Amino acid sequence: MSRRHSKIEPELIKEVLAQVTSLYPETIRQGRIQESLDAYENHLAFVLQHLHGPARILDVGAGGGVLAVALRRLGHSVTAIDNWKEYDGVASPMGHRKDILQILSDNQVQLKIADIMAQAMPLEDESFDLVLLMDVIEHLKEPGMVLRDIHRLLKPEGVFIMVTPNLSRIGHRLRFLYGKSPNWEVLDWCYAPNFFGHVREYTKEELIAMANHVGFITISICFRNQKNLESCQHPFRMKIYRFASWLYPNFSPVIYSSFKKAGH
After folding, report:
1. Average pLDDT, stretch 211-232?
2. Residue 91 pLDDT > 90, yes or no?
3. Are 127 and 185 in contact (CB under 8 A)?
4. 97/116 Cα distance (integer angstroms)
5. What is the CATH code of the structural domain delimited by 10-261?
6. Of 23, 33, 93, 153, which is most buried, counting CB atoms within 10 Å of its CB?
7. Where are the domains of the chain?
8. What are the CA-CA distances from residue 90 to residues 93, 94, 97, 194 (Å)?
9. DSSP secondary structure string, 187-254?
10. Confidence band (pLDDT; 50, 70, 90) for 83?
């Protein structure tokens, strides 16, 4: 179903996500997907704000594939690129690699299996209207290489959307006050044979600086709260966090950013 998205309807977002999440096993729907549903809704709403007709979209680090399939069902041409290594042979909250790839393939999402940190993405220059990097940059050891590659792949006037946790969020600030680290578990970082956690998180200013450095023009930056597992387990704490984020947006947990590639 191809639709124009200049006016975002919350009902449309919920409807499409309900269709997509029904493709996954019950245990995953009631687990990770339910925990992340607010994030999926926010992600899809932000992306649709930047789409005004059918587009060719690249989802970099597509992971479980929910957003890629949702955008495909909305009538866009979607390519998903990842190595899906963290889903191979382990008990991933989003399921096994082969099942995720099957869902993507069944929904006509084009697949590119590649390690985006090991090589340039095997895709043609200036071939996408929109490139997504959703909850990925915090996992990258060399983000500059990936940002340059995304710039190469975008058409002139194309849009790049990046979503990532906010390093300066209130939860991190409070951990510092109590002498605790906001970083990922140190023993996992040092000794786990395959570390899939956050290598580094960023502030709004750092994201802008990195994107501008490779030639992107900033379109918009905003902060958002969203429900997650922690908010379900500690509702009173989350109410305090949300109030603080309302007073000081820079305390919010997530940064949503969009950038444009200059025209020729």
Report:
1. 81
2. no
3. no
4. 17
5. 3.40.50.150
6. 153
7. 10-261
8. 9, 10, 9, 11
9. HHHHH-SS--S-S--B-HHHHHHHHHHTTEEEEEEEEE----HHHHH-HHHHHHHHHHHHH-GGGSSE
10. very high
